[in-house]
Amino acid sequence: MSTPFGGPARTAPGLPQLPTPPTGWPIGSYATYEEAQRAVDHLADSDFAVRDVTIVGVDLMLVERVIGRLTWGRVLASGAASGAWLGLFVGLLLSFFSTATPGSLVPILVGLVSGAVFGMVFAAVGYRASAGRRDFQSASQMVAGRYDVLCEPRNAEQARELLAKLAMSPPPAGR
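Above: the chain's sequence. Below: its structure in token form.
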């Protein structure tokens, strides 16, 4: 069995194998994931059957935060760094099977330098191919407008009562 994204399915026993909309009655709605997580943690600490609970992100958005301007210097430095890591790995593998003097750093250094050079070349080719259409770095994140906590109907009323007690308690220290 595989997921829609191509990987093997890793679901807990009893959960649906295919993507399905969540079920249950709403027992709370929160502005942040941290608040929803705190609510479910409170239920777990109260020995509630949290297996009946689901956190649902509603009004999903893809947020792309611009980190900085992309320049040739940054492209080449990033390519050299990522290539150097791969080269270091290859160099270490070569050093295990090398007939050179035991303890010689030559295979490691050759792997490191050649990896950095190839990384720079591939990064430069990729950046040049973009023809200036994307001259910035960014980080993407999926966020929700709100987070609803749902519970199976058989335990929803008990969960609401526990969350009402949480709402009346003072927030944890350090916030």
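Residues 1-7 have pLDDT under 50 and may be disordered.
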